[in-house]
Specification:
168 residues; 6 strands; Nuclear Transport Factor 2, Chain: A
Length: 168
């Protein structure tokens, strides 16, 4: 009889071994379930960028940036245009993703687009809400000027240059 009880107890432990009654299951939103896009298309590139920001995923984000990537922005207080490299951008983005409790990035319309199948210049507006704490929320609206490039039509689009024209 004790062997039977031991077998039943072992079976219960094995079947429920991955369930923690003190840690409820995570509830997934539609955003969590959004698949990554095919970065061989411009739409797929923008879908992956959106995913990277909203999910605060630095791995996906890093796969969007070309090795020679440059980020440029205007420091209105100093009245200067400043730039940084891919490495600096990854560090800055990592800190933003970790500091924010929530990021809500929304792409708006593409306002201009030119180029060919290997190089594309795109201007697109966006809205970004950064929630650091419930009482510390930053709203950013603006436009990005992206230069996307790839070696061949079979390669992924990569962000080579980003000029940020934000207002916050």
């Amino acid at each position: 009889m004790s062997l039977r009880i031991l077998f039943v107890a072992l079976a219960i432990l094995l079947l429920s071994g991955c369930i923690n009654p003190f840690a409820p299951e995570r509830v997934f939103s539609d955003l969590d379930m959004q698949p990554l896009g095919d970065q061989k298309s411009i739409d797929g590139f923008f879908q992956n960028f959106l995913y990277a920001y909203n999910m605060r995923d630095t791995l996906v984000y890093s796969n969007l940036l070309a090795e020679d990537f440059i980020f440029t922005y205007r420091n209105y207080e100093q009245n200067l245009e400043l730039s940084w490299s891919r490495e600096e951008d990854m560090h800055t983005t990592y800190r933003l993703f970790n500091a924010a409790q929530n990021l809500n990035f929304i792409w708006n319309e593409i306002t201009s687009q030119s180029g060919d199948e290997l190089n594309r210049t795109i201007a697109r507006s966006f809205n970004l809400t950064v929630t650091f704490q419930p009482t510390d929320v930053v709203y950013v609206t603006g436009k990005v000027y992206f230069i996307l490039k790839r070696g061949s039509e079979e390669d992924n689009w990569m962000l080579a240059y980003w000029k940020d024209d934000s207002k916050y």
